[in-house]
Design goal:
Elements: H1 6-10, H2 18-32, H3 41-58, H4 60-67, H5 88-96, H6 101-108, H7 126-144, E1 152-158, H8 160-165, E2 167-172, E3 178-183, E4 192-195, E5 211-217, E6 223-226, E7 229-237, H9 238-243, E8 245-251, E9 254-260, E10 269-272, E11 287-294, H10 301-313
Parallel strand pairs: 1-5, 7-11
Antiparallel strand pairs: 2-3, 4-5, 6-7, 8-9, 10-11
């Protein structure tokens, strides 16, 4: 696909750092993701342009080649053809120095003078020189039409626990092949995993594109990720709320013991330090457990009678 200046596509300066490139890409990718705009071809095309621009600029080698003008925004290789006659002295002078006389010898430089067979130094015939020239022209044509393969985008939905701990999951590629993709611990929503060489095939000997796997975190489950912190709802019994207790809580790291203070009301939030999400620069966020008091599924007469007697002698009201 024809692409514009990748810097302009991402809306960043040519001096943008890798972190700035990633930030710009994530914002645009999240805004333009095709799942949010079903059937909108213009948005889908824009999403592909953004992905292609980030792919080129996030690759240090490709970015450097683009900045030097060696490839275009699509990864096509630029070949600078020599101007007409530029090689005449070096090529034909070397080959025909003896037959072209003084002019030929001067143009030929290293080939000046007649060889033992009447040809230039080295004894190369006209047919040999023409064959070499044609081969060079064919090689140049191949380089002109060389194009790196396009990248292919995939989407992978992970539960929070798998994203937190890291896992290996199978992904079916566009061509039907199945790959085991290793998910590193602590990936976040919008994180892109690059599968080198797993995109569309290149042409003219150029390399294949890459597979770009975007991670989306499943919002359904007992845990919620907010920044570096993990939040969860914690159900406790009426007795545990009134009397307090030590209970076992399942966290993303496994079971831990949590102390419920006596007289805990529903909605109270308890903090477990450093039991949250891995931070990009090291350390961990926290886990926040919100208490939810759960009554028995069936309220029997004994409990109802106790509540009636207790409330009659202990009236209290809440501000709502």
């Amino acid at each position: 696909m024809a692409a514009g200046d990748p810097y302009k596509v991402l809306g960043v300066a040519r001096t943008a750092t890798p972190a700035e490139l990633k930030s710009a890409y994530r914002k645009l990718a999240k805004k333009l993701h095709p799942d949010l705009h079903p059937g909108d071809k213009a948005v889908e095309l824009r999403f592909k342009e953004v992905s292609a621009a980030y792919d080129l600029l996030s690759d240090d080698e490709k970015r450097a080649r683009y900045d030097r003008g060696e490839i275009d925004a699509d990864g096509n290789v630029f070949v600078r053809r020599p101007p007409p006659g530029a090689n005449k002295g070096a090529g034909f002078g070397a080959g025909f120095g003896g037959d072209m006389g003084a002019g030929g010898g001067a143009g030929g430089g290293a080939g000046g003078g007649r060889g033992p067979n009447g040809n230039g130094a080295g004894g190369q015939s006209r047919d040999d020189i023409l064959s070499d020239l044609m081969e060079s022209m064919r090689a140049a044509r191949n380089r002109v039409f060389a194009k790196a393969g396009d990248d292919v985008s995939y989407r992978l939905v992970l539960d929070l626990k798998d994203a937190h701990s890291g896992t290996t999951t199978r992904l079916r590629l566009k061509d039907g092949r199945v790959l085991d993709v290793k998910i590193p611990p602590g990936v976040r929503d919008g994180h892109v995993i690059r599968l080198r060489g797993q995109g569309e095939a290149g042409t003219g000997g150029a390399p294949a594109g890459d597979g770009l796997v975007e991670i989306n975190l499943n919002p359904i489950g007992p845990y919620r990720l907010e920044g570096d912190d993990v939040h969860m709802d914690l159900g406790i019994t009426l007795v545990e709320a009134v009397k307090g207790a030590k209970i076992e809580v399942q966290t993303l790291d496994g079971p831990v013991t949590l102390t419920i203070p006596p007289g805990s009301s529903g909605g109270k939030i308890l903090r477990l330090k450093s039991k949250g999400w891995p931070k990009p620069k090291g350390g961990r966020g926290d886990l926040y457990a919100r208490i939810d008091i759960m009554l028995p599924e069936k309220l029997d007469d004994e409990l109802n009678g106790f509540i009636d007697r207790w409330s009659a002698s202990h009236p209290y009201s809440l501000k709502r």
